[in-house]
């Protein structure tokens, strides 16, 4: 029987690459999408045909609490081996200028939906005494970035939560790890096109990450051989956070 993994935000970009990597590695995958319905359904159909695995796409807006409640009730009825929280909502504003409703919306999608889904899937992992949880965080959780106060706070909350959950669930054979990407080459970076060259100069690797590189790390963390990696903060940023201070 194939192991089953849930992925939030899996229609395209990093999420799509994650779903593809998992399916290719022999997992059955359920993934959510919010607005990219056509892309999600096409990805599920394509991967099901290519890999023979069960790939299911479900429409879900993580900011809709009623819809999330109903979704989580169904999750509790299923058996899960892994969960990857990839869905996220950005919000850029200076700390002194944050709009409360937008800041709370980012916290709901990035953090509160994570805690609610974990409660729903971790019970079957505990019964099986085996499970893998990984969250897509950000380097901003530990490093200040102007204009990212609300977003960084939500990602910081995710990190603290994951470290605590890792300690609490380790004896049940469950691992919980935090992935901290830097800049990834996706459609989300299109608005920064004018600044890209200068941004890449500040990254030791000299480029943005490929979605496949981030997905490969996710797939590795789901594997049985990663059982002793737990509570980790794993940057995948081309050396960006290793470089500190003022440089010539």
UniProtKB/TrEMBL annotation:
Top-level taxon: Bacteria
Family statement: Belongs to the short-chain dehydrogenases/reductases (SDR) family.
Protein name: SDR family oxidoreductase
